[in-house]
Amino acid sequence: MSSRTLKDPQDKTFDDFALGDVMVTRGRTVDVGDITLFSGLTGDHYPLHTDEEFGKASRFGTRIAHGPLTFSIAVGLVGMSGFYGNAIVALLEIRSLKASKPVVSGDTLRVHAEVVSLEPGSNPKYGTLHVNYSVRNQREEEVMNFLQIMLARRAAPEGGQRG
Fold first, then answer.
1. What is the torsional sign of CA 102, 106, 110, 111?
2. What CA–CA distance (Å, rounded) separates 80 from 127?
3. 3-state secondary structure of 43
4. Shortest CA distance to 135 belongs to which of 84, 70, 89, 82?
5. What whole-number distance in Å separates Cα of residue 78 and Cα of residue 27?
6. CA 159, 161, 163: angle at the middle one, nearest 5?
7. What's the rounded Cα separation, in Å, for the pair 86 and 19?
8. Paired residues of 116 in beta bridges
9. CA end-to-end span of the chain, whole Å?
10. Cα–Cα distance measured from residue 155 to residue 124, given in angstroms and rounded to the nearest whole number
11. Which of 143, 138, 133 is nearest to 103 (CA)?
12. CA 9, 19, 80: angle at the middle one, nearest 5?
C-alpha cells in the first residue's frame, strides 16, 4: 500500500478552474448562538435578530439571522471546502447579493458555488474568477444568491517564476 501526503490548502491556480465547475458544500446548521454572537460582534442588535417576542410578532414568526451572517457562513463553507485551494489572491467584488428567504435557527445551509466566468486579463500573473453562490437551506430553497469576483494567481509560464 502506498502512502501520499496531501497538502492543505491544495496547490491550485486560475488555470485549474473551468467554466461550469460546481462545488456543493457540506451543511452547516445555524443556531441561536450564531445569531447572538453575530449581533455582539457587529453591534447590530436590531430586535428582529435579538428579540424572540418581536420576531414572533413579525411576518417571519420568529427571530431571523442577519443577512450578513448568512453571507459570511456561505463564504466560509466554500472556503473550507478546499474548492479554491491556494489560488485566491484577493476578493475584488461582490455583486447582486439577494436575500430571498429568511434563515432561522435550526436551518442547515449549503452552498452551490459555480464558476460562471474566467477572465485571464492582461497581467500574466493573475486572472479573474467569477463564482455564483446559491445558498440553500435543508429544503433546497435558495435563501441567498450572489456573485463573488476574485483575483486568482496564474500558473507560471514554462521556465518562469510564480509571483
1. positive
2. 22
3. coil
4. 70
5. 11
6. 155
7. 19
8. none
9. 37
10. 9
11. 143
12. 25
Q: pLDDT tens digits for the chain (163 residues)?
A: 778 876 777 899 999 999 999 999 999 999 999 999 999 999 999 999 999 999 999 999 999 999 999 999 999 999 999 999 999 999 999 999 999 999 999 999 999 999 999 999 889 999 999 999 999 999 999 999 999 999 999 987 665 554 5
Q: How far is CA 34 from the centre of its chain?
A: 17
Q: What is the DSSP letter of 157?
A: P
φ and ψ at 129, to 5 degrees? Answer: -110, 125
Sign of CA dihedral 99, 110, 77, 133: negative
Residue position matching grid coordinates 431571523: 64
Query: Which pTM does this prediction carry?
Result: 0.90
Q: Render the burial of 128-154: b for 16+ CB within 10 Å, e for the rest.
A: bbbbbbbbbbeeeeebbbbebbbbbbb
Grid coordinates representing 47? 430586535
163: which 3 cell numbers?
A: 509571483
Instruction: Identify the bridge partners of residue 126 per DSSP, sorted by sequence position.
Output: 153
Say if residues 29 and 108 touch (Cβ distance below 8 Å).
yes
